[in-house]
Fold these 3 entries.
Entry 1:
Amino acid sequence: MRNLSFYLTNLTNFLNFLFPFLIKIPSKSLPVQIETMVSLVSRTGRNLQRYEKGYRLVVGCIPYRYKKSQEPTSVEELEVLVISAQNGQEMLFPKGGWENDESMEEAAMRETEEEAGVIGVVGGKLGPWQYKSKRSSIMHESYMFPLLVQEELDSWPESKTRKRRWVSINEAREVCHNWWMRDALEELVRRRRLNPQAQS
């Protein structure tokens, strides 16, 4: 049993080491088995985590779509994707640590795929917001990106620990308990009203 535990720990560490290299390989050149394996592994640990002036840098996305079509119409046609927190008590938008080996946009898209299982096109940066972690006294500086969803995955790294749900803007305002995420949502809505044709 100890050997199995040792093997699994080393396999996980090895996959986490390979992950940054494998995601840069075009998926068409990977065998299907390896592509599937890579897509089902979440990054763990904070050894690559970015900090600036004492703040942990956090990025994420507000995944959105239009009810009737992918063509921009109005804010009323907008739906956003919320996910359950790991403790299952709250709904929020996908977010996580920005790491040293990726751009801000890459980190936001990675976190969104890992936590919400969606892929799409990112728009312009929203933020920053500063807040204190609920679990510790660490201060965070966070940025969000609008993400026009193009694909919903059937399985993703955190599919067993998180639920996802498409909601209206008004429902998102009610169910999302993080004040700074609600602020990011309002900024997205404001941008959509000013320029409905833009990719935010």
Entry 2:
Amino acid sequence: MAKSLSLPSLPFIFPSSITSHLSHLPKISCSSISFQSQSAKRQLLTLISDQQRGLKTQKNPQKLASIVKSIDHLASLGRNSVTTDDSLSATWRLLWTTEKEQLFIIEKAHLFGTRAGDVLQVIDVEKKSLNNVITFPPDGVFFVRSNIEVASSQRVNFRFTSAVLRGKNWEIPLPPFGQGWFDTVYLDDEIRVVKDIRGDYLIVERAPYSWTE
């Protein structure tokens, strides 16, 4: 195997004392919310920067709690945003996750004489498709195909349809398995933050390339 894996009415009138008080309340603008989001995003990216895509976090409950708290803060800032439109369509590359299956493959790939390369989510909202991909440079790849449906402003439902393990000159089809949903709780031009049906978290960045089968 090692070699083969080579988103006019009257105005209201308030007593002057109330209007005077209201005038001193802080104003919340879109720009201030954006500033808060960017600051929270930077904090989150700093927290995960040395976590080896989540491998180190598995053994550090305190670090995990800090990261989840940071994710929840970022999600609260983006709770009214739409993250399931066309901006969701992209090749997304893994930065950090709590998904045990992905982390297991990343960690144990060496046992098969290879290593895990980029771990990707390839989403096309218009085509209602999602591929979960783990690459094994230079030629190996394991990917799971899914059909997706937008369920709300932040939720997408998915159903796995098939899986393939592919080497340089060979391919093994695997049976489809599972269905569920994920919420994209934050999305911008650079990253996407997700929480899924199992309570797992995923932080991905827009990859500098597009992956295709």
Entry 3:
Amino acid sequence: MDDPKLERGTTISSELFKAIQESRLAIVVLSPNYASSSWCLDELTKILQCMKSNGTVLPVFYNVDPSDVRKQSGSFANAFAEHEKRFREDVDKVKRWRAVLTEVANLSWCERKLIEKIVEWVWRKVHHTFKLLDSTELVGIKFTREQMDLLVAPTDDVRFVGIWGMGGIGKTTIARLICL
């Protein structure tokens, strides 16, 4: 869960803390610049705190080696050098962040195939099928569904799909099919 209206540098909202507390699974994506964000480190601290009692943390190392996270080397070393300057008054906070990153890096980490399986599983869960008339499929809709699934399948690309045609040919039905 993320709040798109949350401005950079503000504290984590109570709603986000509540969502973290109520979650049973946290997927944390660690990238090279992850440690440069005190906001992300605060959030990770809360995630680990909550998941110890009632959930699972699944770290995903995106373009970063788990040993860099564990040892805070590479881009993580640079980020922590900045944090130590910025938080001179609160050295304990920086120590907590270091400990949290070490703990996350020591968890079993995901390989690319596992990440792909996670994405496929989530995609199946959130991409509901749309059926009309008590599961009776419309004639020809299966092929259209397959073609639309190919167009909107998870990918690194940004895609726009337009549905165009004369009235009465099922544009709304197709849109509902892929959006619901």
